[in-house]
Design a protein that fits this description.
single chain; 324 residues; Isopropylmalate Dehydrogenase; 11 helices; globular; cobalt ion binding; EC 1.1.1.262
């Protein structure tokens, strides 16, 4: 029997509960998952099938959305986060991680959190979900991948101002990103010999030093070192020509040097269906590539496409690891 994916509740005032309810009709043997959160936070009228253990999720889906109750006191008010609920949100994530680590679930898919509410209500000490999961797993470094059917892309630096990127981009950090991505493509995506394209930092990949030197002094020497170990690395490439359809056929994943260089292509190619994957964890974690969307919470307009894709990707990753 395929173990289910734990879908953590995220911010109760966001679109997470509505998305979970919209996916209820798809839960079952082909998409085994359960909602981990407070049943009363789901939209009114949601058919709920309470479970006592994740193993009950697939059968319970015939009667509604499988829900493993997790106490988060107080009502969910769409668009109005309540810091008093933060401890419950945080403990739901920790509970899902524990289930993933002990093999009760195949992995976790996390609905979006609201960091300010967690800071205000639970003294949350992490920049976001990813860093908290790494701390729970005891992992020093993890990597964020954005993925859809036609592109996997990893930013080497993430949420920092653009002028900070050159100083943040180090050979040590880039090497770790490449190694974690390479290992994950083998373990989580079943690609025995991954091909990884590496973007340059500067326009035209520096154009032989005319537009910047980082390609010559940092990126190329590192790639040559890793190629000598047998890695199939392409680049550094000019970022403006590496993401069109024909170019994407030549690699299994791309590593970009900064946030927008990575996220603009994937959000252009598949805005609704992109998935956030955390690489380097001992368990599987995916999430939809969007936030809490307070502006539309409670209106019925939330699009479940990205969460659906995230659940399906988590299941495929479990199959690749041989742990469905």
């Amino acid at each position: 029997m395929t173990r289910p994916i734990a879908l953590t509740c995220g911010e109760p005032a966001g679109i997470g509960p509505e998305i979970a309810a919209k996916l209820a009709s798809e839960a079952g043997p082909d998409l085994p998952f359960f909602f981990l959160g407070a049943p009363e936070h789901l939209p009114a009228g949601t058919a709920v099938a309470l479970i006592n253990h994740p193993s009950e999720a697939a059968m319970a889906a015939a009667h509604g959305l499988p829900v493993l109750p997790h106490e988060i006191p107080g009502p969910a008010r769409p668009g109005q986060p309540d810091p008093a609920q933060a401890p419950g949100v945080v403990s739901a994530i920790a509970r899902a991680v524990e289930m993933a680590q002990n093999g009760t679930v195949a992995g976790l898919c996390t609905l979006p959190i609201h960091k300010k509410a967690l800071i205000d209500g639970a003294d949350f000490a992490y920049p976001g979900h990813t860093e908290f999961l790494a701390a729970l797993a005891g992992v020093e470094r993890v990597v964020m991948m954005l993925a859809c059917d036609s592109l996997r892309v990893v930013p080497a630096t993430i949420h920092i101002p653009l002028f900070r990127v050159p100083e943040a981009l180090t050979a040590e950090g880039l090497e770790a990103t490449i190694r974690i991505t390479h290992a994950a493509l083998i373990r989580d995506f079943g690609i025995s010999t991954p091909r990884i394209a590496i973007a340059g930092l500067n326009p035209h990949a520096g154009e032989d030093g005319a537009m910047g030197s980082e390609e010559q002094t940092l990126i190329t020497p590192l790639l040559n070192q890793l190629r000598a170990e047998g890695m199939q690395l392409i680049g550094p490439l000019s970022a403006d020509t590496m993401f069109h359809a024909a170019a994407r056929q030549g690699y299994d994943a791309a590593i970009a040097m900064y946030h927008d260089q990575a996220l603009i292509p994937i959000k252009t190619i598949d805005f609704a269906g992109g998935v956030n994957v955390t690489l380097g964890l001992p368990f599987i974690r995916t999430s939809p590539d969007h936030g809490t969307a307070f502006d539309i919470a409670g209106t019925g307009r939330a699009d479940p496409t990205s969460t659906r894709a995230a659940l399906r990707m988590a299941l495929r990753m479990a199959e690749a690891r041989g742990t469905p």
